[in-house]
C-alpha cells in the first residue's frame, strides 16, 4: 500500500522502534526518528534501513534529540510536521528503574508530557501513540484488560502510569487524537540483552558454543504473557488508523513462568536447563510483578488484531537467531 504519510518515532533505535520503522517504510511512509547523541553509534538496529539522505530514494531521516529536552521537541516537530507521532522512547528496564528512579521519571514519565505539550504548543494536527505498559497493572491480579486498575510496583511502572494519564488528559482536554497502547511483554532477536528472554537465548547459544558455563538468574516464578515484537508494532499502527482515539491492551492471553521460558529455550538445543541455571539475588527486584496475563479482546474486536507468534515458538526463534550471530557478538559486562 502506498501513502504519503509522515511519521515521527521517538525510540527508533530500540527494539520496537526498529520494527515499527520497517513496517511504516513498507507501507510507504516517510519516517523520521529521534536519536540520542552518544559517543558511539547507537543505530545498529536500524542501520539496514538507512539510505544516505542525499539519495532521492531516502525515506528514513534521523534527527538528534532527547525526551528530556522540551525545546528540541518543539523545533523538531515544527520542522518535520508529522501526521503520526509514536512515542516509544523510555528508560524501559524495570530493574534499572530502581537504581535510577529520578531519571526514569524524567524520561519515561515527564518525557511524554514534553512531547504532548510540544504538539499542543505548535498546534500540530497529528495522531499520537503512547507506549504504555502492562507493568502499570503491577500487583493487580490477572487477567488484565483496559478496565483493570493500575497498581505499579516499580519507578518505571509509576512513570508509565503518569504518562498514560497525561495522554488521556490531552485527549479529553484538547481533543487530541492520543491513544495508549497497553502492551504486554514482547520480545524478539532485537530485544535488549538484559531483558530476561534475550538473556536466556544468548546464554543458550553461548553454552552450546562452549563460551559460557552457567546462567545466573533471579525470580523464576514470575508469570508473563510474552508475544513477538513484530506482531505488536502492527497493533501500534492499527491504533492510529482507528476511527477514534482510545486505549488498547495488546497481549497473547497466554501465561508462562520464567522457568517455562528457560525450558523451551534449552530444550530446543537438547539441553536440561536445570544443569546450567544458578541463582543470583542481584537480579531480584525490591518489589516484583508476579503475574501479567492480558485480555486483548478489544484490540481483536475493534482493530482486528491477533498475535501470530506465541511464547514457545518465540523462545525457539530467539535461540536460533542468537545461535546464528554468535561470532559477531561482543559479550556483556557480567554485572548487567
Ligand atoms: P528499548 O529497546 O529499551 O528502546 C528504548 C528506546 O528509547 C531506545 O531507542 C532509546 O535510545 C530511547 N530512549 C531512552 N531514553 C531516551 C531519552 N531520554 N530520549 C530519547 N530517547 C530515549 O525499548 P522497547 O522494548 O523497544 O520498548 C519501546 C517502548 O515500549 C518503551 O517505551 C517501553 O517502555 C515500552 N514497552 C515495552 C514493552 C516490551 O515488552 N518491549 C512492553 C510495554 C511497553 P538508545 O538506543 O539511545 O538507548
Ligand atoms: N531482566 C531479568 N534478568 N529478569 C529476570 C531475571 C534476570 O536475570 N531473572 C528473573 N527475571 C524475571 C524478572 O524478575 C521479571 O519478573 C521477569 O523475569 C521479566 O523481566 P524482564 O524481562 O526484565 O521484563 P519486565 O517484565 O520486568 O519488563 C518488561 O516488560 C514490561 C511490560 O510488562 C520491559 O520490557 C518493560 O519495558 C515493559 O513495560
Automatic annotation (TrEMBL):
One of its GO terms (molecular function) is NADP+ binding. It holds the Pfam family GDP_Man_Dehyd. Residues 8-318 form the NAD(P)-binding domain. This is GDP-mannose 4,6-dehydratase. GO terms for biological process: 'de novo' GDP-L-fucose biosynthetic process. CDD domains: GDP_MD_SDR_e (cd05260). The keyword NADP applies. It comes from Kineosporia babensis. The keyword Isomerase does not apply. Its EC number is 4.2.1.47. NADP(+) binds at residue 128. It catalyses: GDP-alpha-D-mannose = GDP-4-dehydro-alpha-D-rhamnose + H2O. The gene is gmd. Belongs to the NAD(P)-dependent epimerase/dehydratase family. GDP-mannose 4,6-dehydratase subfamily. Keywords: Lyase, NADP. Its cofactor is NADP(+). Catalyzes the conversion of GDP-D-mannose to GDP-4-dehydro-6-deoxy-D-mannose.
Amino acid at each position: 500500500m502506498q501513502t504519503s504519510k509522515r511519521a515521527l518515532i521517538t525510540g527508533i533505535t530500540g527494539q520496537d522502534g526498529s520494527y515499527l520503522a520497517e513496517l511504516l517504510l513498507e507501507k510507504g511512509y516517510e519516517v523520521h526518528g529521534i536519536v540520542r547523541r552518544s559517543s558511539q553509534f547507537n543505530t545498529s538496529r536500524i542501520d539496514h534501513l538507512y539510505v544516505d539522505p542525499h539519495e532521492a530514494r531516502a525515506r528514513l531521516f534521523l534527527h538528534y534529540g532527547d525526551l528530556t529536552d522540551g525545546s528540541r521537541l518543539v523545533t523538531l516537530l515544527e520542522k518535520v510536521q508529522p501526521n503520526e507521532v509514536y512515542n516509544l522512547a523510555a528508560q524501559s528496564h524495570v530493574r534499572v528503574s530502581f537504581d535510577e528512579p529520578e531519571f526514569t521519571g524524567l524520561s519515561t514519565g515527564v518525557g511524554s508530557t514534553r512531547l504532548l505539550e510540544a504538539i499542543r504548543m505548535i498546534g500540530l494536527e497529528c495522531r499520537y501513540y503512547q507506549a504504555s505498559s502492562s507493568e502499570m497493572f503491577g500487583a493487580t491480579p490477572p487477567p488484565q484488560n483496559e478496565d483493570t486498575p493500575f497498581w505499579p510496583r516499580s519507578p518505571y511502572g509509576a512513570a508509565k502510569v503518569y504518562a498514560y494519564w497525561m495522554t488521556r488528559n490531552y485527549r479529553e482536554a484538547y481533543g487530541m487524537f492520543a491513544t495508549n497502547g497497553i502492551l504486554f511483554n514482547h520480545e524478539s532477536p532485537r530485544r535488549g540483552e538484559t531483558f530476561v528472554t534475550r538473556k536466556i537465548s544468548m546464554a543458550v547459544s553461548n553454552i552450546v558454543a562452549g563460551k559460557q558455563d552457567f546462567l545466573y538468574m533471579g525470580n523464576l516464578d514470575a508469570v508473563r504473557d510474552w508475544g513477538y515484537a513484530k506482531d505488536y508494532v502492527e497493533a501500534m499502527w492499527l491504533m492510529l488508523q482507528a476511527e477514534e482515539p482510545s486505549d488498547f491492551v495488546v497481549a497473547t492471553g497466554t501465561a508462562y513462568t520464567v522457568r517455562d521460558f528457560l525450558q523451551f529455550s534449552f530444550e530446543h538445543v537438547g539441553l536440561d536447563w536445570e544443569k546450567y541455571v544458578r541463582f543470583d539475588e542481584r537480579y531480584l527486584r525490591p518489589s516484583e510483578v508476579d503475574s501479567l496475563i492480558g485480555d486483548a479482546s478489544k484490540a481483536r474486536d475493534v482493530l482486528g488484531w491477533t498475535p501470530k507468534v506465541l511464547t514457545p515458538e518465540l523462545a525457539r526463534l530467539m535461540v536460533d537467531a542468537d545461535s546464528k550471530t554468535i561470532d559477531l557478538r561482543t559479550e556483556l559486562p557480567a554485572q548487567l
